[in-house]
Amino acid sequence: MVQIGAFDSNALAEGEWNRVSGKFGSLFSGKAQVIQKAESGGRNFWRLRAAGFESRDEARRFCAALIAEGIDCIPATAK
C-alpha cells in the first residue's frame, strides 16, 4: 500500500484520487482506492491510499513515479 495524502474530508480524498488516477491512468491500473479515517490531536482526517502492489519494491517504484511528477507518495502498511 502507498499513501498519496491526508485530507480534511472523505470527499476531498476521493477528489484527489479521481484527479491523480485520471492523470496517471496506466500507473493506477489494477490499484484499489483505500480511504481510512484517522484521528490525531483530536482532529479527524482521511488518509488516501492505493493498494494492490505485489511487493514493497513495486510500491516504491509507484511512489517514485508520482514524486517525479510532484505528487506526494509514501509506502505505507495497512493498520
From TrEMBL:
Q: What InterPro entries does this protein map onto?
A: SPOR-like_dom, SPOR-like_sf
Report what the protein is called. SPOR domain-containing protein
A Pfam family that the UniProt record links to this protein:
SPOR
Q: Which domain of life is it from?
A: Bacteria
Question: Where does the SPOR domain start and stop, copy by copy?
Answer: 1-79
